[in-house]
Structure formats: C-alpha cells, structure tokens
Amino acid sequence: MEKHRSSPAAAPATRSPGRRTYLMCRPAYYAVEYAINPWMDTTAPVDATLACTQWEALADAYTALGHEVVRIEPEPGLPDMVYSANGAFVVDGIAYGASFRYPERRPEADAHEKWYRTSGWKYAEPEFINEGEGDFTYLPGRELILAGWGFRTDARAHAEAADVFGRPVVSLRLVDPRYYHLDTALAPLDDERIAYYPEAFAPGSRLLLERLFPDAVIADAEDAAGFGLNFVSDGRNVVINAEASGFAKKLRDAGYETVPVDLSELKKGGGSVKCCTAELRR
After folding, report:
1. Which of the four, 96, 148, 199, 265, has the lowest number of CB atoms within 10 Å?
2. In the chain, what's the furthest Cα-to-Cα distance?
3. What is the model's pLDDT at position 203?
4. Chain segment 198-252, per-residue pLDDT in tens
5. Cβ atoms < 10 Å from Cβ of 62
6. CB 201 within 8 A of CB 221
7. Within 119-244, where are the H helices?
8. What whole-number distance in Å separates Cα of residue 130 and Cα of residue 91?
9. Which residue in the list 67, 112, 158, 181 is annotated as catalytic?
10. Which pTM was predicted?
C-alpha cells in the first residue's frame, strides 16, 4: 500500500486513527447500463474485471490500516450496489435505511435492509427519499449530522434523521449536478474538521459552512472533478482517489497522511472511495 506522509512541520490531525468497520460490496455485476448522473455514459466501455481489481485494492488499503471490512453480497441486476454507502446511514448502532430516487436503484434498499436486520442492527425504515451516506455524514466531536439535498435526498428526510438519531442536522443544498450527493462535495477529516468544494453548494449553505468550519480544507474545481472529496478518513489517514493528486497534497499540507487508490473504473458510474464505503458506527 502506497502511503504519503505529511511534512514534519504540519499540524497533527485532531483525531487519532482508531479501528473502524466498513461495509463494502464487491462489483461483481458492475456495469453502466443507465445514466442517472452526469458521470455515467452508457456508450463508454467498462472493464468489470478491472473494477473488481481496483475495489479489492481499496478493501486491502482499509485492512492494511487496521480497519475491519465486512461485505454485503452483490445481487444480479443491481450494477450500482458496489456503492454501498448509499444503502443506509449508521450512527449509534442504528441504521436509517435508504429510499432511492431512481427506480433502477430502489431494489438495493431491500438488499441493504435485509443485511442490516440479519446482522443485528436496529433498523429505522425511511418515510422520505434519502440515499444513505451519499447525503449524510456525521461529526462525532460535534455530535452533528451534515445532510445534503437538491438532487437525490428529499429535504424532509433531514428532519426524519434528526428524529431517528436524536442529533442536530444541518441541511446543505447542492446546486451542481456533477456533485449530486453530499459525499462528492464534502467529507469529514476527523471528529470536527471537514474538507469541501464551495461551488457545489448554494450561497446560503456555503456561508453556513464557512461559519461552522473556518478551518476546513477547501477544494477547487480540479480537486472536485477528480473525486478528491469522495474520500474516507480515519482521522489521520485519508484514503483518496489517486486521480486527485493535487488535493492529496493539500491534505498532507494540512497534517494528514494520504493513501491513494485508483478507482478509475468505478468513477465511470459516478462514485469513488466513499461511495464504495459505508461506515458502521456502534
């Protein structure tokens, strides 16, 4: 595993890495058979074998960092099931289930519900459309949930999530269709700090982020287009799409260590590191 360290002069991250548990789904049936986001092109060839190889490299990167990877079995006819982050949002042992906007993905919700229930998680059925960790993230140090809306998740799901978890939810409106999920435009670096791409958000949401997170690491257009914000961090180590090399340097300059993983095939479906990774929080 290639790992890039921050310079000795960089400030340390506020959270030490701890062992985490991630839910992943091997892209056994991965394909781009329909287009529901701007990254999907049904005329572009997809190498499913390469996608599986790249996915295995991602899973190996997590285990090499000391984290646990558990797997949900892929199902035929669900080519996007590899993006396991979209199946639920999990905090305090409660899985708030997904309800997908597009009919092509709706059966994934049933597969995830079955997995969470049979794996012993408390499962909260959703009333409103939401796409799991695609549009929700959690900052334990602030006991704060950040939630996106504008393209996929119904804004009413934010109040529903607040009721499920008993935690405050900050609603953020997304305005660029290329960044249709919150996790393509924003991600936590540790318990309290985030990185984000300002232009993906409506002016009011941008101002809110500036006020809440004055120490955020800011991405530019090139960083975002390389899916640099679709990363997974354990508080020190940031697993990031290899294409986003410029943003990786910004993260190292901010005191984090980066682990680049090439997910070029999975990007063709509109996802990268975070999309393939659901964090299971007890």
Report:
1. 199
2. 50
3. 98
4. 999 999 999 999 999 999 999 999 999 999 999 999 999 999 999 999 999 999 9
5. 24
6. no
7. 156-165, 203-212, 221-225
8. 15
9. 181
10. 0.94
Is 275 one of the annotated active-site residues of the chain? yes
- Residue whose entry in the numeric block shows the structure tokens 């049933």: 110
DSSP H helices, the chain, are 48-64, 106-118, 156-165, 203-212, 221-225, 245-253, 264-267
Contact 111, 87 (CB under 8 A): yes
d(CA 22, CA 60): 12
Q: Which residues pair with 213 in a beta bridge?
A: none
Say yes or no to pLDDT of 13 above 60: no
| Bridging pattern class, strands 237-241 and 232-233 | antiparallel
Q: Which residues contact 139 (CB under 8 A, 6 or more apart)?
A: 145, 146, 188, 191, 192, 194
Our answer to whether residue 181 is catalytic in this structure is yes
How many CB atoms sit inside 10 A of residue 159's CB?
Answer: 13
